[in-house]
Records
---
Amino acid sequence: MNLSKVPESQKSLVLDDVGEFLVTSILRKVSEGKSPVDGFGSFEKLNKKYAKDFKSGDRTPNLELTGDLLDSLEYRASGEELEVGYFDNASEKTLGKADGHNNFSGKSQLPTRRYIPKDDETFISSIQNEIENIVSEYERDEDGNASDISDSIFIAPSVGGTPVALNTLFDDEFLGRLFGTR
């Protein structure tokens, strides 16, 4: 995540927005039995006996048996860095479950259900794209002007048929051309 065009005063806000988005996105994907980490796809289905005994027959592996694992997932922002995972208040049991499913240690006998990327992994493209969108909302250009998403949104006015950037729609020159006063 490149924050070089984000003003210092806005960086903590960007990190909070991205952090909240990431935790929510992870929870949403996991609830569907899918990994939010690129290259991992859908989680392996629960075996029938386990699903029958613990999940009323539902074989979707959503990591929600007791709720403590995903309830403890959080983000931490510091400087220009953002981490998603388990921190000071996570129990040893929760940390064990997290490693068991993500298998960062390489010692787990559980099927890998990666929901937090390793250092050399990324989130799926839809999540990456939204992170970029969030960051771009806070970016400034070389002159210190806020990036304006309306610069890239175009409409086709009924007069003239030329696409016009939304941010120029109501300027004097355009209105003059539209109504024939210029």
Note: The chain has a mean pLDDT of 83.
---
Amino acid sequence: MCLPKEEIGTFITNETAIYNYLKADTTTSQEILAMQASQPVMKIHKVRRGEHLSTIASRYKCSVRDLKEWNHLHSYRIYVGERLTVYISPESAKEKESYASNKKEQRKASKINSGYYVIQNGDTLWDIAKSHGISVKKLAEMNNISEHETLRKGEKLIVAMSGK
């Protein structure tokens, strides 16, 4: 029987806990929870334009070889929209969640301000446009920049048309 990638990843992620559950008469629930806390967390990454295996590996602090192995890739070619399985440490997963939450709060606060957004570390035009409900093309046009512009922390972008 052949399982879909998602189910295989879920099994691998929880393999130790599953086997420990099966022999639960000798393993305490605290021991099982401790083992689960040290297990890698499986994430699905959707490939964006301009990304390569090396940039994705760098983002998730793994190797290109790991990505290729986890996703059964035989070449370095990936496509926009493709979904890749990545495994990260539980600590990294918590850091990423905290970082994402802070970014959302910053964007919300920026939306309230006078139609400008102050660029933060790691921001992309895509992220900013999405959070403000406009297209990357429109955001770039409003700021008279290229859609591929490198953003610098602290710079301001216009995110709303005057009169809104």
Note: The radius of gyration is 21 Å.
